Prior knowledge:
This protein is about 45% helix and about 20% strand. It has helices at about 5, 30-40, 55-65, 80-85, 90-95, 115-125, 135-155; strands at about 10, 15, 20-25, 45-50, 70-75, 100-105, 130. The chain has a 5-stranded parallel sheet with strand order 4-3-5-6-7, sandwiched between helices. The radius of gyration is 15 Å and the shape is globular. The model is unreliable at about 1-10 (pLDDT under 50). Pfam families: B12-binding (PF02310).
Amino acid sequence: MTQRQMNGHSERAGGLRKVILGVAASDSHAVANHLIAHALRSLGYDVLNLGTCTPISEFAEACEANPDVEAVIIGSLNGHVHEDLRDLPAAKAAGRIQCPVIVGGNLSVGSKKNASDLDRLRDLGVDHILSTADELPTVLHEIAVRRMSSEDLLVAAS
């Protein structure tokens, strides 16, 4: 692994690693979305930013149009992410979203947070749940390592 890959940067054979970024359907908070897009681009990612108020159907369309995407990143600050992600299980089951889904932000309404909120997100098909945006480069790196390992296994098996 190169030093660049170890640092969480994102070059790979054939170009930059691509991620899809957006804010959950009922959420119009744009500042964090733009800051995250900027930070990912500064790390070398190709970021397809769908912006605010993005329904699952638009994330699915973006995944279908970009089959090389490595992750879908969904932010939510209004706390209604559970309702906004209600169509995620169907999109994943239909193969419209085949990459890992990462969610972060304020993930429930009210000041009290509990583990059941996170369990509900996992039940909807969320693969990674972030406590802070600072965790994102590490999670993306882990996804890349798993993907490279899977691709190596497929090559070895053929």
